[in-house]
Design goal:
heterodimer; A: alpha/beta; Dihydroorotate dehydrogenase B (pyrk subunit), domain 3; 7-stranded mixed beta sheet; 5 helices; globular; B: alpha/beta; TIM Barrel; 8-stranded parallel barrel; 4-stranded antiparallel beta sheet
Chain lengths: 263, 312
């Protein structure tokens, strides 16, 4: 669907530790694809640009995003109260490809990167695809009761850096032993080092079964300004706009070496 | 807008009629296609395209953006698909709209500027050429010219020979002297000035002890640039008798009116487009209201008003 530009009202804010889910009304016809994002104005204090947030939930008349405080803009957004107005542009970008030969999907999330994968998981299950969500975080209390809530709707495995919950280690330590792509499709979103580790584990043969949602600083969100450049493999040296040609890219599309250098 | 009836927003700049005085700045509106999903292109007074170079250009390494307080740094590095595809894909598409198009021409050598500008002029599809001699994000063809009025004049004269449509030159705010540069460009045959490009700028990530931009330095735009643009328009319009399109951090109707009063015959909206795709239609209505409330019937009455009131 073409993007919509709309002002809406915050219906509910659900706080989960370091993050909050913001639920707001959406206009008729709003139909986001998993992996697409919403570009939200975070006004004030000299901030100019919108901030991109993946769609976390959608149920017809409302949608939600998961906001983790990483700077002034997200901090402002997290302080919004029910009834406050939001200025939203979206849905934007290319989302996940839901089709694939493999019948089992591994959803691999680092931190707040869980957001697009939760919505993706819902859509995959509706299509009869078996999906498991692997989620890594710093400590077991970081996202409050969100793991409990998500555990009710999807097969969830947790890893924590401090070992306070789930497996001690990173999210990659949770993946089936020796899995190098065969038989699974991989969907991932999280910090750049996590994506790099995952890609090198799957490379070269498994990259074709990997899709990642990348996080980039963005300006227009529409592909016009070319500010959110992501290095791609073909043609060599080229970039694609994360906001339009992404934020979801196939594992084989990206130039992982240049991504590593710029990290 | 009943109270605003009788207000005439039309302007003419370098002989090009505009239905309203708001253009979209180069680089902030793509070549119209992406933005057309959200805004009626014919609501704009004019469109200045993303910079076109002879060959395709991949642009600078990321990160290319950093937001500062009331400003934005960018180092896009002229990413574009090159002259050939611009002429076959973008310009014909844009010419389907009732919309004057300024094609922003960039190059890495004088020969490239001349070749691109010549082809754009010959296409018959552009209203004007905007010569981008002030991009702070490329080695040659960028900031270099802006420090050398003589070389800039030489480039403008060469391009002038091959261009049959109005030729605008986009200048940076920090040059040897706005008056000197404006005169050099005017004497070389330019038909108008675009003022201003971004200011060279930089930001540092102190935690990681590294530059915020992959290209190390970039250009500052947004409201922080606005008073600098007003000053540049004021200086240039006091030095040469050329039409000026004012640009730099226009965020409101009064920002635009400041530029008119300082001497700009039209204004262009830049960074604001990235935040608010429908900014121009909003500003058009705000300007209509402002003019009506303040008794202006035409935009021209505001252009250069400060000097007409005796300010020097």
């Amino acid at each position: 669907m073409p993007p919509l530009l709309f002002k809406t009202t915050l219906l509910e804010r659900r706080d989960y530790g370091c993050a909050s889910e913001l639920v707001f009304r959406v206009p008729p016809g709003f139909q986001p694809h998993p992996g697409q994002f919403l570009h939200i104005l975070c006004d004030g204090e000299g901030r100019l640009l919108r901030r991109p947030f993946s769609v976390f939930g959608h149920n017809g008349r409302s949608a939600s995003v998961l906001v983790r405080e990483v700077g002034g803009g997200s901090a402002w957004l997290r302080r919004r109260m029910p009834g406050d107005e939001l200025d939203v542009l979206g849905p934007l970008g290319r989302g996940f490809d839901l089709d694939g030969e493999e019948e089992e999907a591994l959803l691999i999330a680092g931190g707040a990167g869980v957001a697009p994968l939760v919505y993706l998981g819902q859509r995959l299950r509706e299509r009869g695809v078996r999906a498991t969500l692997f989620w890594g975080m710093e400590s077991g209390k970081e996202y409050g009761t969100l793991p409990e809530r998500l555990g009710e709707e999807i097969d969830l495995r947790l890893a924590t850096t401090d070992g306070s919950r789930g497996k001690r280690g990173t999210v990659l330590d949770l993946l089936p032993c020796g899995s190098s792509g065969a038989g699974f499709r991989y969907y991932a979103c999280g910090p750049r080092p996590m994506l790099l580790s995952l890609a090198s584990r799957l490379a070269p043969g498994g990259l074709s079964s990997l899709q990642v949602s990348v996080e980039e600083r963005m300006a227009c969100g529409l592909g016009a300004c070319r500010g959110c450049a992501v290095p791609v493999a073909d043609p060599p040296g080229a970039y694609r706009a994360a906001c339009r040609e992404g934020p979801v890219f196939g594992g084989e599309e990206l130039d992982w070496e240049r991504l590593r250098v710029s990290t | 807008m009943g109270t605003a009836e009788g207000v005439d927003l039309r302007v003419e700049i370098a002989g090009i009629p505009l239905k309203n005085p708001f253009l979209a700045c180069s680089g902030t509106f793509g070549n119209g296609r992406e933005m057309s999903e959200l805004v009626d292109l014919e609501a704009l007074g004019g469109l200045m395209t993303k910079a076109v170079t002879l060959e395709p250009c991949a642009g600078n390494p990321p990160p290319r953006l950093w937001e500062t307080r009331w400003g934005m740094l960018n180092s896009i590095g002229l990413e574009n698909k090159g002259l050939e595809r611009f002429l076959s894909e973008d310009l014909p598409w844009l010419s389907g709209f009732d919309l004057p198009v300024w094609v922003n021409v960039a190059g890495f050598s004088v020969r490239e500027y001349v070749e691109v500008a010549s082809a754009v002029s010959r296409s018959g599809l552009a209203a004007a050429v905007e010569l981008n001699i002030s991009c702070p994000n490329v080695e040659r063809g960028g900031a270099h010219f802006s420090r050398h009025p003589g070389e800039t004049a030489g480039l403008v004269a060469r391009v002038r020979e091959v261009v049959d449509i109005p030729l605008f030159v986009k200048l940076p705010p920090l040059t040897v002297g706005m008056g000197e540069m404006a005169r050099a460009v005017a004497e070389a045959g330019a038909d108008g000035l675009s003022l201003v490009n971004t200011i060279p700028a930089m930001a540092v990530d102190v935690e990681r002890a590294c530059p915020r931009l992959g290209n190390v330095t970039g250009g500052l735009s947004g409201p922080a640039l606005h008073p600098v643009a007003v000053h540049a328009v004021w200086e240039a319009s006091g030095s040469v008798d050329l039409p000026v399109i004012g640009m730099g951090g226009v965020w409101s109707c009064s920002d635009a009116v400041e530029l008119f009063m300082a001497g700009a015959g039209a204004v262009a909206v830049g960074t604001l487009n990235l935040v608010e795709p429908r900014a121009v239609p909003r500003l058009v209505e705000e300007l209509r209201g402002f003019m009506s409330a303040n008794g202006y019937l035409t935009v021209t009455e505001m252009v250069g008003l400060l000097r007409r009131k005796g300010w020097r």
